[in-house]
Design the sequence.
């Protein structure tokens, strides 16, 4: 910000405390105008100095505090723009004037910060002569001493301002031969003195028994000052490095983690500043000082941070002088590796991390690429030290040693061969021991060894022993998965020599088994064969000997395997694909040749030769792959097609043309073959997934794959094929594939040019085939239309209105992907129209030949889509509304308000339609409008929108009520409850109030931490929409989808962290859950467990009559008024009829009695409908209360319907509520009573049964 901008900001103050400064500035400017001086920084500076003398004096101190604050503030702003010679000449008077402010103990922070700023500008302007003056004089050194005192002030803002000033001063050193600022030594000495004093004071407090060691603000401030000086002066001054390291290592012993972190941050800053070539001269002295401070071998508190400092130091040293640092590597490697024998875990981990850092940073690339004899000796020393780490001495640290060995293989790369073979042997022997626990860590080391040394060297040390196992040398089949995951960039010949014969031996054993039942051994051999060929993709990842190893015989062997071994096709195709893609990646890489040689051991020239070599096999391989593709089921063809793509990209043009002509001829023959067409006709029927598709489908897939790589002369044939197949609706799948050709061509540059040249032909083809498109091909047709529109010239946009009606109708497709494609196409059309252009309306179908030329625009496109609102069918109107909704959501900000208002008004009218399909689309439009349109447009329409929506809130079909509720929830959120309620009809206000109560209840539950089930459903819905439009149209933040409050009592409890549902453990109160038991998983549930319902303490008492039959409706029993059903009890409160004999008789009667359920023919259940003739009472049954003759009701079962109620129209009284219970389930109430042992002794001897509806009670009459 310039000085003028800063002063302009002061002239218009926004705060009360800034007005005094504005008044002073105005007075200064008025004075300058009166004296006819220009408003230059020098003029401002002179005027402000005069005012400073009036407000602050050396004898009286601060005379006028308000004026002094404003003047010093303005001086702070002006002084950086004043010429340096003037500042140097005025140094003494300004410092004398500011001295009372800087030295006063009770001065306010704003004035002090401004004074520090003035002092900063003065010190930056001083030259070497001024800095040479002693601190006892009125000199820059004396002023710097004052800044150092303020840099540890207890006030944060003052301290920060002083530290920034010191940083600025030290970074702007005057010209001199020294690397450091003249004041750097003084600053470092003062800072060290402060730290020593604070550390000593902290030690005294600890001795006296103060426990609050973490409260040491003074020491933290002193450390911050040291960090400031170290970062500002290009590293700590050379002469002060030793005392700094000593005090920092002492502080790092503290239990206060903040102090330890601050100490190491300072060391980090010092090292970072020395990474510069100019400052790197200080690095050896610093490393020497740190090495001399080595703690004792078992100091678990101080040793880890010291190791970390050493690691960082050698990292910086490797950046500055890599070769010299590498020469020290064996020595420091031995020094740090000795700490791995420590009993402290922290020391071992720190040592391992330090060794890994050495290996990553201190081994130069030149040592790996072109090592000298001396470099080889150094590598041997490091390798010997690493092998020693696998001795028994370091057994407790083997986990850390394994990580170091992994880093060692990665650092040495192929130079590991011959040097680290012993590591491979020892780790392999450990891994093969069944009692060894750290197999995963050993696998990582061996995997790194495979990557660095190659599988050949590893297998020489650790042979597999699978083909001819020897006694005492078990097989190492566990090496195969390790090889599979880590083999790369090696010799392909090793696979041919080592693994192809092994695979033949294993497979021969499988063949020898013949058709006999497979034993476990045979299954193991089959698995070994698959694991062996799973290695081939790794061997094909940038092989070093591709041109010599991949010959005709190897290619023929792979072809035979592709034909015969279907289970190996995945690995074989992936290997062939990797051969091409890995070399193409190198050719297109922008990495330097040196990096490629270091990491891939191959150059771009070598990779290009590999591709040319593979191209010589491409024609034959493609023929094999095409045949295999035609023999494979469609669901398993994906990987074959990817392999075909890879080889098509490198096939020479002449072979590509031959292949294309051959496939085209076969496709034409297949299309002309009536047998093939018959199969194609069957595609409309449901086929099994294991049936091969017609040949025409397979050949069309190959044509589509070929199309991207074909030259321009073949495109007429391609387009003629598309024109031949697209009109044929008899084969939907073939038509679908033909439409895919256009989007496929658009992915290549040559295809894009062809699409532009043939755009008019494609337009005609798409317009003429609109009536023949099948439903499965709809989405791909829309994608093809999108390609044509994307390549339309702006002067010829008549295709958009010609095809628009089809796109709009597609917005109502059943298939979701087709709908999405239609929406995307509508947006693409709108963007194309918004760029302008011409629309020749005379070329639009059904338009007059003299129709004028229209100008393309976004408003014109909306007008075209709106034409569908007058469609003849509700489906067309609904589709047009849906299309308008989509493009309005996308382009609302680009449309004039008048167009949007007309749309909203039109939809307001459609809201009154009686057609549900139209209204459903209108509801979507209203929801999008409420969410995305400006409030000024929607709010005036609420008086008609709200009543219109309310009219559909009573419609439950198609979720209309739910949709309307969602819309009102969003409207209330945006416009407020009062605005919506004001326009709501009186009869519907209850609906609005229900929404408000639901929201308030949801907020209340959320505040209480117990959300309801509907809130959980809302959380689950988040993130399921593919676009913002779908979320706006279909999403909802509603807490409930219904007006019922029943959902609030759901058992499900939502997640409180929003990341997933909770997990609960159900425990048995009598036995604790054993987490080591496998059955414990059955006790883990995602639903909150409910407390087990215990049996009631008091048995329910059911009312019965004298015969033991249940009695309903009786209300005169004063003793059991609260029971819905009560039995007869004696004077002691016991049921007279409930006995063991009665229970047994009831059970036997229920199983073998007259009314027992029996199974007839076919296993169907049969019920007895025979009526009892004994017992009197006939067909009548009295239902009465106990001892109440007035309440007796008579019902004839002969008139009962199967539901249990009496026939209507017979004058008989209906038993209320009995229609379901009599005929339900397993015999109704009477059966339930029998199962509980509550039926009377003579339950089966009553009379007057009959009718299916009366089977629920036994004994229709009274005895």
Sequence:
């Amino acid at each position: 910000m310039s000085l003028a901008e800063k002063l302009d900001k002061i002239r218009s103050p926004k705060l009360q405390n800034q007005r005094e400064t504005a008044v002073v500035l105005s007075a200064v400017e008025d004075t300058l105008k009166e004296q006819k001086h220009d408003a230059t920084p020098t003029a401002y500076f002179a005027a402000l100095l005069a005012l400073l003398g009036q407000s602050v004096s050396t004898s009286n101190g601060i005379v006028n505090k308000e004026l002094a604050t404003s003047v010093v503030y303005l001086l702070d702003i002006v002084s950086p723009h004043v010429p340096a010679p003037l500042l140097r000449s005025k140094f003494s008077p300004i410092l004398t004037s500011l001295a009372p402010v800087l030295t006063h103990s009770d001065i306010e922070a704003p004035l002090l910060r401004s004074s520090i700023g003035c002092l900063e500008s003065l010190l930056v302007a001083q030259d070497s002569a001024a800095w040479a003056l002693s601190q006892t004089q009125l000199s820059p050194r004396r002023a710097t001493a004052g800044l150092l005192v303020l840099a540890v002030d207890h006030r944060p803002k003052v301290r920060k301002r002083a530290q920034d000033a010191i940083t600025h001063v030290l970074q702007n050193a005057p010209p001199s031969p020294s690397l450091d600022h003249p004041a750097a030594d003084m600053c470092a000495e003062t800072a060290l003195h402060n730290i020593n004093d604070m550390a000593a004071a902290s030690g005294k407090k600890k001795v006296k028994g103060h426990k609050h060691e973490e409260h040491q603000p003074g020491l933290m401030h002193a450390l911050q000052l040291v960090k400031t000086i170290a970062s500002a002066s290009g590293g700590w001054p050379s002469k002060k490095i030793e005392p700094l390291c000593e005090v920092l290592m002492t502080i790092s012993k503290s239990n206060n983690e903040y102090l330890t972190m601050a100490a190491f941050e300072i060391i980090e800053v010092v090292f970072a500043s020395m990474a510069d070539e100019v400052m790197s001269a200080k690095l050896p002295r610093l490393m020497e000082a740190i090495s001399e401070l080595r703690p004792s071998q078992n100091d678990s508190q101080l040793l880890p941070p010291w190791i970390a400092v050493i690691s960082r130091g050698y990292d910086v040293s490797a950046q500055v002088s890599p070769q010299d640092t590498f020469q020290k590597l064996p020595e420091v490697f031995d020094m740090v590796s000795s700490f791995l024998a420590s009993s402290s875990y922290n020391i071992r981990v720190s040592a391992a991390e330090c060794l890994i850092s050495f290996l990553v940073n201190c081994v130069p690339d030149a040592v790996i690429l072109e090592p000298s004899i001396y470099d080889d000796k150094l590598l041997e020393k490091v390798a010997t030290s690493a092998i020693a780490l696998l001795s028994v001495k370091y057994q407790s640290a083997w986990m850390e040693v394994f990580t170091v060995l992994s880093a060692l293989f990665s650092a040495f790369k192929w130079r590991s061969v011959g040097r680290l073979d012993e590591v491979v042997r020892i780790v392999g022997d450990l891994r093969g021991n069944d009692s060894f626990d750290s197999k995963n860590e050993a696998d990582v080391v061996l995997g790194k060894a495979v990557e660095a040394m190659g599988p050949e060297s590893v297998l020489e040390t650790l042979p597999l022993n699978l083909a001819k196992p020897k006694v005492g040398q078990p097989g190492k089949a566990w090496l195969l998965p390790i090889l599979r995951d880590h083999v790369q960039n090696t010799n392909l010949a090793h696979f041919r020599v080592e693994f192809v014969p092994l695979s033949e031996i294993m497979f021969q054993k499988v063949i020898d088994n013949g058709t006999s039942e497979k034993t476990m051994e045979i299954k193991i051999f089959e698995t070994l064969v698959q694991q062996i060929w799973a290695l081939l993709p790794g061997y094909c990842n940038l092989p070093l000997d591709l041109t010599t190893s991949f010959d005709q015989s190897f290619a023929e062997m792979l072809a035979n395997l592709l034909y015969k071994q279907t289970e190996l096709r995945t690995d074989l195709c992936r290997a062939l694909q990797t051969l091409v893609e890995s070399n193409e990646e190198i050719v297109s890489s922008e990495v330097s040749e040196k990096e490629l040689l270091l990491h891939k051991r191959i150059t771009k020239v070598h990779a290009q030769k590999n591709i040319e070599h593979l191209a010589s096999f491409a024609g034959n391989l493609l023929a094999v792959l095409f045949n295999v593709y035609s023999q494979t089921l469609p669901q398993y063809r994906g990987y074959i097609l990817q392999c075909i793509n890879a080889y098509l990209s490198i096939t020479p043009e002449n072979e590509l043309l031959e292949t294309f002509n051959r496939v085209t001829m076969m496709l034409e023959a297949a299309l002309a073959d009536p047998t093939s067409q018959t199969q194609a006709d069957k595609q409309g029927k449901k086929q099994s997934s294991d049936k091969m598709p017609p040949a025409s489908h397979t050949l069309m897939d190959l044509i589509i794959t070929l199309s991207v790589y074909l030259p321009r002369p073949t495109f007429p044939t391609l387009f003629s094929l598309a024109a031949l197949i697209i009109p044929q609706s008899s084969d939907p799948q073939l038509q679908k594939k033909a439409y895919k050709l256009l989007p496929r061509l658009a992915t290549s540059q040559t295809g894009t040019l062809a699409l532009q040249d043939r755009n008019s032909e494609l337009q005609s083809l798409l317009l003429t085939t609109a009536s023949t498109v099948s439903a499965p091909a709809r989405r791909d047709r829309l994608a093809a239309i999108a390609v044509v529109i994307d390549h339309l010239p702006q002067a010829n946009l008549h295709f958009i209105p010609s095809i628009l009606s089809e796109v709009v109708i597609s917005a109502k497709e059943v298939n979701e992907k087709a709908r999405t494609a239609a929406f995307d196409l509508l947006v693409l059309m709108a963007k194309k129209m918004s760029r302008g252009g011409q629309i020749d309306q005379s070329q639009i179908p059904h338009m007059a030949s003299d129709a004028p030329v229209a100008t393309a625009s976004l408003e014109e496109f909306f007008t075209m889509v709106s034409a569908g609102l007058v469609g003849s069918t509700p489906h067309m109107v609904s589709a047009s509304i849906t299309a308008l909704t989509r493009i309005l959501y996308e382009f609302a900000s680009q449309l004039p308000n008048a167009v949007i208002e007309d749309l909203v008004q039109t939809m307001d009218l459609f809201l009154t339609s009686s057609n549900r399909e139209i209204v459903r689309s209108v509801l979507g439009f209203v929801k999008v409008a409420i969410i995305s349109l400006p409030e000024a447009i929607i709010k005036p329409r609420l008086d008609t929108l709200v009543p219109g929506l309310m009219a559909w809130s009573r419609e439950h079909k198609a979720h209309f009520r739910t949709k309307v509720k969602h819309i009102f929830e969003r409207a209330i959120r945006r416009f407020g409850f009062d605005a919506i309620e004001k326009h709501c009809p009186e009869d519907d206000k209850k609906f609005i109030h229900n929404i408000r109560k639901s929201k308030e209840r949801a907020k209340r539950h959320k505040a209480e931490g117990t959300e309801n089930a509907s809130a959980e459903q809302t959380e689950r819905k988040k993130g399921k929409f593919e676009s913002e439009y779908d979320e706006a149209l279909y999403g909802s933040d509603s807490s409930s989808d219904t007006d019922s409050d029943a959902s609030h009592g759901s058992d499900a409890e939502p997640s409180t962290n929003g990341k997933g549902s909770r997990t609960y453990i159900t425990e048995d109160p009598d036995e604790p859950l054993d987490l080591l038991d496998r059955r414990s998983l059955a006790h883990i549930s995602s639903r909150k467990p409910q407390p087990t319902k215990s049996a009631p303490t008091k048995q329910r008492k059911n009312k019965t009559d004298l015969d033991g039959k249940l009695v309903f409706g009786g209300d005169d029993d004063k003793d059991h008024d609260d029971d819905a059903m009560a039995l007869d009890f004696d004077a002691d409160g016991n049921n007279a009829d409930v006995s063991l004999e009665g229970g047994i008789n009831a059970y036997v009667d229920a199983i073998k009695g007259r009314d027992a359920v029996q199974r007839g023919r076919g296993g169907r259940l049969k019920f007895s409908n025979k009526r009892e003739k004994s017992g009197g009472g006939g067909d009548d049954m009295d239902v009465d209360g106990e001892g109440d003759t007035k309440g007796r009701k008579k019902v004839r079962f002969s008139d009962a319907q199967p539901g249990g109620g009496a026939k209507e129209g017979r004058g008989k009284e209906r038993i209320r509520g009995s229609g379901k219970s009599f005929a339900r389930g397993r015999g109704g109430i009477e059966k339930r009573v029998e199962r509980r042992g509550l039926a009377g002794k003579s339950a089966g001897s009553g009379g007057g049964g009959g009718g299916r509806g009366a089977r629920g009670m036994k004994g229709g009459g009274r005895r």
User: Anything to note?
Assistant: The longest helix spans residues 604-630. The mean pLDDT is 79.
